[in-house]
Every structure is written in structure tokens, then in C-alpha cells.
Write a structure and sequence with these properties.
The structure holds two protein chains of two kinds. Chain A is an all-beta fold. Chain A has no helices and eleven strands. In chain A, 0% of the residues lie in helices and 54% in strands. In chain A, strands 2, 4, 5, 6, 9, 10 and 11 form a seven-stranded mixed sheet that branches. A four-stranded antiparallel sheet of chain A has the order 1-3-8-7, with no helix packed on it. Chain A is globular and about 40 Å long. The N and C termini of chain A lie far apart (36 Å). Chain B starts with a strand and ends with a strand. In chain B, the strands form three sheets. In chain B, strands 2, 5, 6, 10, 11 and 12 form a six-stranded mixed sheet that branches. Chain B has a four-stranded antiparallel sheet with strand order 3-9-8-7, with no helix packed on it. Chain B has a two-stranded antiparallel ribbon with strand order 1-4. The radius of gyration of chain B is 14 Å and the shape is globular. Helix content of chain B is 0%, strand content 51%. Classes of the chains: A mainly beta, B mainly beta. Chains A and B meet through strand 5, strand 9 and strand 10 of A and strand 5, strand 6 and strand 10 of B.
Chain lengths: 114, 113
């Protein structure tokens, strides 16, 4: 398996534009996590899906952020409209929910909003 | 609420020094325990994990961690650090009650050459 695949790796966009980040989890995993990492706030869990259903979205900062998981092999994180303070590295991770399992991270998307 | 505490946010050591990073969690049930490492500009990678059995776990690159259930701790150790160990280290816990994955805030480790 190629691991967790995120795209794009880098995104530069202007304030007010819509941004869509994509994630393909490891085949067979049933849990998917979106994290945001910044120098100021560290690693933050934004949303967590289990079997394609959002379980905990309490970390989503505001209504400008939305996440979907239409099937077991694909998820998106959308920011509309984007703002400079959204600049961060966004990581997607997947795991098989249960005991004796670990999470695997994608390479991340570095988002810069100017 | 359950939490994971990493008491040292920044640690600076010289090469060849010994390392111990603390990790404590607040949960009375069964847990799975992890240490992840994030090298500069990279993603998080698993360093080592504890599921059950021998509480002394050995990971990659000479790292080890010891699970002490009575202290709710899972401290990371390395007898002699190298400059290439400069990274951020995250402790994480999975609770057996709901399989929730909880992260510590991370410890930034800088090794002076």
C-alpha cells in the first residue's frame, strides 16, 4: 500500500478563495482524521470519521471549514472562504478503529493564504 | 476528560547526552500507547508502540519507552542522542473504552552538534 495520500502537497491561494484538500486513506482502514498544525497552536484535531461518518467535528474552527467522506477511499477538507489565519500544514491520518492499531499519517498539505 | 501530558515543551541537549521525555495520561482503563516523531518539514511517523506484554518497548533508532501502569506513564528514552534526533516528539494514547486517539502537545527536541 502506498500509505495515506494527500493532495496537493502545497497550495497557495488568495484570501477569499475556496480551497479543497484531498485525502486517500490506507485501504481497509475505517477511521480517518484531519489535523491542522501551526507553530502557535501545535497539532489540532479538526474532525474524525469512522466508517465514513463524522464522529467528532468539535475541532472544526468555524463554518468556513467543512469535511466530507463520500466513500471509504476518499475524503475532502474544504475551506470557503479562506483567510490568512488558515495558513498551516493540514495532515490526514487513517487507522483501523479498535485495539492494537496505530494511525498512519499522510505527507501533509502546506496551505498558504495570502 | 481524558488527556495526555507531555511536561517538557522544549528540550535542548548536546550530542551523546541521554534523553528522557515524559508522558503521562489520565485514564484508568486499558490503553494502547504510542510515540510518534516528526522530523523538520516532515509528517508524523511511528517511533514505537505498546499494546500489551513487556512494558519495556524498543523502537527504531535506539529509542525505547517504558510503560509504568501505576504511574500512568510512558516515558521515552535514548541513552545517547545524535544531532539527527532533532525533531518534535508526540505521545499518544488510544482508550479501550471508545478507541479515542488522544495526543500530547508534543516536545520539541534540539540536539546541539
Amino acid at each position: 500500500d502506498a500509505g495515506v495520500i494527500q493532495s496537493p502537497r502545497h497550495e497557495v491561494t488568495e484570501m477569499g478563495q475556496e480551497v479543497t484538500l484531498r485525502c486517500k486513506p490506507i485501504s481497509g482502514h475505517n477511521s480517518l482524521f484531519w489535523y491542522r498544525q501551526t507553530m502557535m497552536r501545535g497539532l489540532e484535531l479538526l474532525i474524525y470519521f469512522n466508517n465514513n461518518v463524522p464522529i467528532d467535528d468539535s475541532g472544526m474552527p468555524e463554518d468556513r471549514f467543512s469535511a466530507k467522506m463520500p466513500n471509504a477511499s476518499f475524503s475532502t477538507l474544504k475551506i470557503q472562504p479562506s483567510e490568512p489565519r488558515d495558513s498551516a500544514v493540514y495532515f490526514c491520518a487513517s487507522s483501523f478503529r479498535g485495539r492494537n492499531t496505530e494511525a498512519f499519517f499522510g505527507q501533509g498539505t502546506r496551505l498558504t493564504v495570502v | 476528560a481524558q488527556s495526555v501530558s507531555q511536561h517538557n515543551h522544549h528540550v535542548i541537549l548536546s550530542e551523546a547526552a541521554s534523553l528522557e521525555l515524559g508522558c503521562n495520561y489520565s485514564y484508568g482503563g486499558t490503553v494502547n500507547l504510542f510515540w510518534y516523531v516528526q522530523y523538520p518539514g516532515q509528517h508524523l511517523q511511528l517511533l514505537l508502540k505498546y499494546f500489551s506484554g513487556d512494558p519495556l518497548v524498543k523502537g527504531i533508532k535506539g529509542f525505547e519507552a517504558e510503560f509504568i501502569k501505576s504511574k500512568f506513564s510512558f516515558n521515552l528514552r535514548k541513552p545517547s542522542v545524535q544531532w539527527s534526533d532533532t525533531a518534535e516528539y508526540f505521545c499518544a494514547v488510544i482508550l479501550d473504552s471508545n478507541y479515542q486517539l488522544i495526543w500530547g502537545a508534543g516536545t520539541k527536541l534540539i540536539i546541539k552538534p
